[in-house]
Amino acid sequence: MRNLDITTLRSLVAVADHGGVTRAATALNLTQSAVSMQIKRLEDMLDLTLLERANRRVSLTAPGEQLVGYARRMLDLNDEVVGRLTEETFEGELALGVPHDIVYPVVPRVLKQFNAAFPRVKVNLRSSSTLRLREAMARGEVDVILTTEEGVGEGGETLTEMHLRWTGAQGGVSWKRRPLRLAFCRQCIFRPIVLRKLDAAGVDWELAVDSEDDRAVEALVSADLAVGALLESSIPPHLEAITPGGALPDLGVQKINLYGNAGRDEVRAALMRMLRQGFGALTPPVPIPA
């Protein structure tokens, strides 16, 4: 009788989720060699090759993909059992604020992980702009927030960085026109950054929409009537990142910051720890071609 080890299965799923051993190790708070050893132990026990290792890239083999499906179900059941039998008195609610453009892919995974560990604690997810989330935290309306900012404010910590990219319709030409027509919501934290960089570069611009509705902005951009700016990871499939070849200024990177005072609150501290691990395992930004 051969028994699968939950720890090794968790490492395999982390490699699948994060696209490599190094980022999986960061998410699991382990060394890279420890994760590699666990995968090797799993392969030896099953007498199967689970990962293809070629040209410094790691991908799942067909048996590896099949095992990951089973592993997810086993981990969910394991975490549910442990959470329900050892939950002590952790009950209540937490309010988590996240800008809509960084909800995926990390936040759903964190919420699932948190729910398994604290099944009686309800997390209320609030999606809004960074400016409004900072204001809500100052009023005590949320417990933990994530933000997208050029810097980091008092009490915050930077988890990772993402490129801010010019975005337009697929195959669009709006970015070539002058004055450059822009589409941003009034509360968009990227709006003043973009305007400042355009002014510094001497690029004429005009606002094509003045709205509180993200959908209205997205519709204008997808119709090739204006351009906008989004984090590279959040550009929807009907839009595309623009590489203007020097015709527009580079928008740099945005920091993904975490704010929340855990103090002695074990539940809040656990949520913040899971967010650190999730965003810390993301691929760091690489330079954008000119």
Which helices and strands occur, and which strands form pairs?
Elements: H1 6-18, H2 21-28, H3 32-46, E1 51-54, E2 57-60, H4 62-85, E3 92-98, H5 106-117, E4 121-127, H6 130-138, E5 144-149, E6 156-169, E7 180-185, H7 190-201, E8 205-211, H8 214-222, E9 228-231, E10 239-241, E11 253-259, H9 266-280
Parallel strand pairs: 3-4, 3-5, 7-8
Antiparallel strand pairs: 1-2, 5-11, 6-9, 6-10, 6-11
Helix pairs in contact: 1-2, 1-3, 1-4, 2-3, 2-9, 4-5, 5-9
Q: Would you mind describing this structure in some detail?
A:
Strands 3, 4, 5, 6, 9, 10 and 11 form a seven-stranded mixed β-sheet that branches. This protein is 40% helix and 24% strand. Helix 1 packs across helix 2 and helix 1 crosses helix 3. It is built from nine helices and eleven strands. It is α/β, with parallel strands linked by helices and 290 residues long. The longest helix is centred in the first third of the chain and has 24 residues. The mean pLDDT is 90. A hairpin with a 2-residue loop joins strand 1 and strand 2.
